[in-house]
Amino acid sequence: MNKNSRVFNFSAGPSMLPLEVIEEVAKELPNYQGSGQSVMEMSHRSEVFDKIIKEAEADLRTLLNIPDNYKVLFLQGGATLQFSMVALNFMGGSHKADYIVTGSWAKKAYEEAKKYGNIKLVATSEDKKFSYIPKVKKEDFRKDADYVYICYNNTIYGTHFPYIPDTGDIPLVADMSSCILSEKIDVTRFAAIFAGAQKNIGPAGVTVAIIREDMIGKAHPMTPVYLDYKIHADKESLYNTPPCFAIYVAGKCFKNLLEKGGVEAIEKKNREKAQKLYDAIDESKLFSCPVKGDDRSLMNVVMVTGKDELDKKFVKEAEDAGLVNLKGHRSIGGLRASIYNAMPDEGVEKLIDFMKRFEDENK
Ligand SMILES: Cc1ncc(COP(=O)(O)O)c(C=O)c1O
Question: What CATH number labels 262-361?
């Protein structure tokens, strides 16, 4: 690997960002737009930063077509803290919530929620190593549940909900950490959506929450002040010092995506990239994907050779060829190619060529 050239990084996150954004940030680093300071040094109460955060919010609203009755919050603590915030904030009615567990992240959210209320496991795909998305019907949910929880795209297992569960009047809450901004979504089908940034939003350090206004203001009385959505909504994400630099870079990524035609245009590209890679896996005699059909993720493509030693060899040789982080999650092994918005076509094509060569050499 040439140390002076950029690699194709297939990491599940933090992952690749658009090079144009990185170069622009580098240019602006010591003196942001004539302010005489870096965004890293700037007061979060300054006029300059106020413009940065307001524009980031406005651009995200445009990209996802977020209606006015939803708040957009820039928070800290990663998607993991949202597992607690969701439970603490949204179980103010019957103290019941229904969870669909389709992978490790949903399971963590479910375990966390159990500390705060009466939680029902409505469906799980753990019986088949989370390799599919269970089908659920409206009747499966408790009528008085305060919310239903799903993880829309399962980063580790490479699955994605092929449908949005019909929960009737029960608010639907979704972890979209690994698919937000990769495909068009109808925000109005969800009462709350959250996502850690370090995949399609920007650098790690900021977490985005999109919450319908009627869901806010019902937090458990013991909720720590920072974990109450209301305080962040009332203070427009400036209750305390926000992750300024991460918000600034995320804002640049939003503008970059808008310039490239927005979510619709990137979804088309993402579908093409994923299709090419899945086709290559399905045609191969060496590689196989445990996820079938409509449940396959566009962002996280999992595959195995069936032999641990060969998987390891593949990861090592791919790295030498400038294709890095192809190891599956440490909890399941195998291989995984995360192909988020910023992964160029060229990266996917290089990976497919490499897979073919590797297969020939390891028959
Ligand atoms: C779907 C999903 N949810 C939650 C998390 C946890 O995110 P964080 O590390 O920001 O807490 C991840 C991390 O990769 C994820 O992929």
Answer: 3.90.1150.10
